[in-house]
Each structure stands twice: as structure tokens, then as C-alpha cells.
Amino acid sequence: MTEVTLSNVVKKYGAHQAVHGIDLDIADGEFVVLVGPSGCGKSTTLRMIAGLEDISGGEVSIGGRVVNDLPPRERNISMVFQNYALYPHMTVRENLGFSLHIAKQDPDQIKIAVDDAAAILGLDELMDRKPAELSGGQRQRVAMGRAIVRHPDVFLFDEPLSNLDAKLRTQMRAEIKKLHQRIGNTIIYVTHDQVEAMTLADRIVLMRDGHIVQVGTPLELFNTPVDTFVASFIGSPPMNLVDGTVNGANLTLTDGTILPIPLTARGLLHDGQAIHFGFRADNLMPIGHAVDEEGEIITLDLTVTLTEPLGTETVLFTEFGGAEVQAKMFNPRPVIPGEAMKFQMVLDKCHVFDAKTGKAIRS
Amino acid sequence: MPRRRLPEWFLLLLPAIIVIAAVVLIPLIFSLYSSFTPYKLTRPSTLWKWIGTYNYEKILTDAKFWAAFGRTVLFLTIALNLEMLLGLGIALMVNKVTWGQRTLRTILMFPMMFSPILVGFQFKFIFNDNIGLVNNALQSMGFNVALPWLVDGKLAMFSIAFAEIWMSTSVFAILILAGLFAMPRDPLEAAKVDGCTPWQSFRHITLPFLMPFIYIAMTIRSLDVARAYDIVQIMTGGGPARRTELLWTLMSRTGYVDARMGLANAMGYVSILLSIFFTVYFFRKLSAARAEIGMGS
Fold first, then answer.
1. What is the dihedral of CA B159, B162, B164, B166, to 10 degrees?
2. Which of A177, A337, B111, B187 has its CA 20 to 30 A from that of B238?
3. What is the distance between the alpha carbons of residues B101 and B131, in angstroms, rounded to a whole number?
4. What is the pLDDT of residues B160-186, one digit of tens each?
């Protein structure tokens, strides 16, 4: 049983504080993704769990054992690095078996473990090559193989896919997910790519400036972001945000558009409060090219300014409430910029954020 | 009838050919030729007397030559290995320094900035048996001895090696330090996570990466040491009684003191084989080490 617990973990570099007292409980076998913009402290947090960075304050425990002062080798973890970090002078086989060799395991057993890992990752053909002779994807696979031969308690991934091209990234993403389903270990994965976070995670930990902003399943973060930062970080395209003020039972947007307050925020707002009105592109659809939705629907007449056809859908850029927003058209037909269209929006799926704090207001 | 003109490419190359011929080719051919004559500087006419391989035969059976040859090889082996170990140690320590490293690196290069002749004089003074620092220090510490540092054969070789190592360890230190700077950090972190102790990380990750740098330093230094002359000449002059005679002190004595230039040149051609051997040897090692860490061959 290997749960990982961070309590009030702090990292300071001199006077600069990179991580501000993080609390996080990771369950055994859980796939947790730390995500956030660069410099948010996610990699630092991972490296503290790995033991590659000293912990300035708080406690990290793995499997119920506080590991603050243990060197990495005594934490029974393995790590996959962004730059693969393969040993350049060893063949793939030696790379895979290195940790077992260091642990002075029986050579026959090492061979079995290495062959096993190689089979899982499809490395059989490459065993006698050196890292310099491998492609990026193959190197990353070797790095993963090196991590799994040891049967560690916890896997740590530090942006493992960011050096790969888009196609390979998608492919390796699926392989990592399969790997997790197959071996079921606890995985902590760091990325700056919200798509990776959404697709891989059991639970996402979204970080910013050394703080955890929100922890939850991908759908929780997508559907109920706690603030405008989460709303614009998660989801592609990001959530549309339009400025406005509360006016009785209605919201008045910057350009004078008047909307009823969404159900979830009713009764929580006061007159004259400045807010951001948020909605996702797939909640603003031209009528006739929409997905059927339940709830309180409003219709809007908007002019399309730009189109981005993606095949199954087209992203439409338009002006709404005094801001440029994006809408989605399903079963698309060709649209000429300048064309006026009738749009529908499900009010229940819209969000209201306080303009001052950026926090979501919902019951 | 038109005059035949030299081809253009030849004309263009001619200046280079003339310079190379004047400074390299002709001296080389002349020295090679003279090694087959009993050429004595004091009797120029001897240059025209061909005696075939007589000089070479003489050298091959000359115990003094082989003693100097063996001593040079031994000196080279000991000095290079100690310099490598010390240089590696210094580089590893300097690499750990976080404050004032630049200054330290500059200080590290001081010994290389001195002329070997001056270093020779300095150590000749330090190891002098009457007024030298070492004996003085020993006596102040209560050892009532006056060790003949530059007279006793073994002690004199030690003293010379000491001076040589003092002067040139920084060549290794600087080159190995450059290797440490160029070393990627990721594999070391991976090794930590893979369970390596600091020693194991060094042995399995750092050292293989540094080997090419070590062999480059070895190649450079083996050429330096194989032609070691200045420090030895100043400190002991190859003596006393040839106890510290190395190849080049022997050669210069034969050529300039005894004026037997033909014989000295023959010695030169035999001992050049030594330098070639070491260069080829370390170059092979270098290529192998580079291929080992995937730097290409």
C-alpha cells in the first residue's frame, strides 16, 4: 500500500519561496497529475517527493513513512525525466538493468526483469543499442522501462512527453495510461499541458505561484472551476470571460447586453457587484448546429468574425458582451466571416466569478 | 616557341611549399641523413662519410641509452598517473565549490603560467641539501638530517617528478573540470533515484563521461613529458653521474657537449617512436571512450 502524503510542504531558495505549504493526499494506485504554468512549483514539488531537492518545511511521507531526510535511493521510487536522462555509455539493456545491478541482484533475475520490461514497452529489438542511436520516442520508452524494472512503490514523471512531437506525444500518452492500468502503481505526473492532465489523471492538482489552486477529477475542474484561473487554464479553447455588473435579477455586460443571472449563482450576488461572466465555447452554439441541451436556454443574434474549421466542429469567433468570444458549431457548414447567426446558450452551464477575487460564485 | 609555364596550382602552392621545405622538410631530411654519418660538430667534414646503420646499432646495444629510455618511460608513467589522480581530485572538489569558483579556477592555472626553467630553479632551491626549504623544514621539526634530494638517484627522480607534477597537474584539473561542466545533470539524478550511492554514481556515471577528457589530457601531457628536458636540465642536468638522465638530456649531451650530432640524431629517431607510441595509444583510448559515451567516433 503506497499512499503519498504532503503536509504543509514548503520550498525556499534563499529568500524566494517557490512552494508555499502544500497539503496533498495521494491514494494508493492513484494517477495524480500536477499541472500549472511554468514556474508554478509543480516540478519542485515532484523533485521534493523524489528527494532530489531538500524540503525546506513540512513533511513528505511515502507509504506512511516520513521520507524528508532519506536519500532518493531509500524512497523506493522511480522517476522519468523530461530529457530522458539515459546513461549515454550503456546499452538499452544495461540502462534497464542498471538499478538492479546496483542493488546487486542475481544476474539471471535481472535478465528476467529486464526482458519483462522490454516486452511491456516493445523494446526487444533495441536492447543492444546505445541511447544515441535511438529516436526520441524510443528513448522515452527506455526511460519508462528503466522506471518499471524496479517495481517501485511510486512512479514520478517529470514532463516526460514535452520533448516529443505532437503525434508521438498522443501515442505515448496512451501508452502511459495503459501502463498504469496494467501495473496499477501510484503515479505522480507533472506537466504544463492541460490536455495531458485531463486525459491521464484520476485527479488533477492545479498549481499556481507555489500554491494549489484546485484539486479534483478532470471533470470537476472542467465543470466547476473555483476561479477564473482554473477556468481559463483547463479546457481548449479556454473559457470565455466577459465583464459585467449585477443589476437586480440580471447581469449587465460591458456593451449593455442584459442576461438573467444563472441559476447556480442566484441569491449569491448583490446589486452593483462587478463580475466576470464565463461560459465555454461548446455552450454557445449556432441554432441548427447545436447539441441538444436541457435547461434554461437563451438565444442570441451574433455576427461571426472568424472561423477555425476542425472537421467535426468549427470554432466560431464572435463579439459578445463587449468581448471576443469563441463558439462551437457542430456538424459544420461553411460560414463566411461577417455572417449573422442565431446562437443558443444554456444559462445553467454558465459561470459567474467575482471580478475582484476571481473566485467562482455558485451554490 | 612559347615557354612552358608552371601549372597555376603549383604556383599558388609554391610559397607554402618553400616555407615548409625550409623549416620542416630540409632539417628533417638533413637530420635523418646525418644519423647515418659519424657527424661531429667540431669536424664538419665527417658529414660526408656514410657509415650506414652504425649509429643505430650502437644505440641499440648502448646500456646508457636504454637506461635513459626506461627511466623516461617510468617517469612518464608515474608523473601522468599521479597528475591524473590529483587533477581529478582537484577538479571534483573545485566543481563542488559554489562561491569564488572563477577565482579558484584562475589560481589553479598559475603553475602553468610559469616557465619550466623558472619552476626548475625554484625546486632546485627548495630541494637543495644545504640551503633548501625542505631540509630546513625537516631540521626545524627536529629531524637531524640533510637529505641529498638532488644527489641520491631515487630522491632526485622524486624531486623532479614532484616539480613536474606541481607544474602540470592543473592541465588535468582544467580539462577534467571542463568535462564536469559539460556533463548533463539528468543522468546523475537518475542514478540517485536508481539507488546509487555517491561513489557508485561517480564510478558508473561520472567517470565514464570524463574518460575522453582524461585521455585528451593524457595525450597532451605524454608528449610534454616524453620530451621533458628543461626542468631536468635545470634541477640535475641529468646527473649526478647520469642518475636522472632522461632521453632528451642524454641526446643534448651527446649532440652539443660531446658534439656527436650524428649519434644524437639517431637517438632522436629512436626515441620519437616512444612519443608516437604514446600518442597512438592514448588516441585509440580516446576514440574508444568517446564512442562509449555516444559522442561518435
1. -140
2. B111
3. 37
4. 999 999 998 999 999 999 999 998 888
What would the grid cell of residue A209 be? 505561484
The alpha-helical segments, DSSP class H, found in chain A are: 42-50, 92-102, 107-121, 136-148, 166-183, 194-200, 218-223, 228-233
Extract the C-alpha cell encoding A56. Answer: 525546506
From first CA to last CA, the distance across chain A in angstroms is 37
Q: Which residues contact B168 (CB under 8 A, 6 or more apart)?
A: B79, B83, B111, B112, B221, B224
Q: What domains lie within chain A, and their CATH numbers?
A: 4-233 (3.40.50.300), 240-354 (2.40.50.140)
User: What letter would DSSP give residue A74?
Assistant: G
| HSE-up of residue B106 (Cα within 13 Å, Cβ side) | 3
The region, left, alpha or beta by phi > 0 then psi within -120 to 50, assigned to residue A21 is: left
Say how far apart CA B77 and CA B72 lie, in whole Å: 9
Q: Is the Cβ–Cβ distance between B172 and B263 less than 8 Å?
A: no
Interface residues from chain A to B (CB-CB < 8 Å): 50-52, 71-73, 77-79, 81, 83-89, 98-99, 102-103, 130-133, 146, 150, 156
Cis amide bond preceding B44, omega within 30: no
Query: Tens digit of pLDDT for each residue in A88-135?
Result: 889 999 999 999 999 888 999 999 999 988 888 888 889 999 998 898
ipTM of the complex model = 0.80
The answer to whether residues A266 and A340 touch, using CB atoms and an 8 Å cutoff, is: no
Enter the CATH code of domain B35-292. 1.10.3720.10
Q: Got the DSSP string for A203-240?
A: EEEEEETTEEEEEE-HHHHHHS-SBHHHHHHSSSSPPE
Taking the CA atoms of B90, B91, B95 and B100 in sequence, report the sign of the dihedral they define: positive
- Which of B192, B193, B294 is opposite residue A88, by nearest beta carbon? B294
Buried b (16+ CB within 10 A) or exposed e, B164-186: bbbbbbbbbbbbbbebbeebeeb
How far, in Å, CA of A23 to CA of A156, rounded?
A: 18
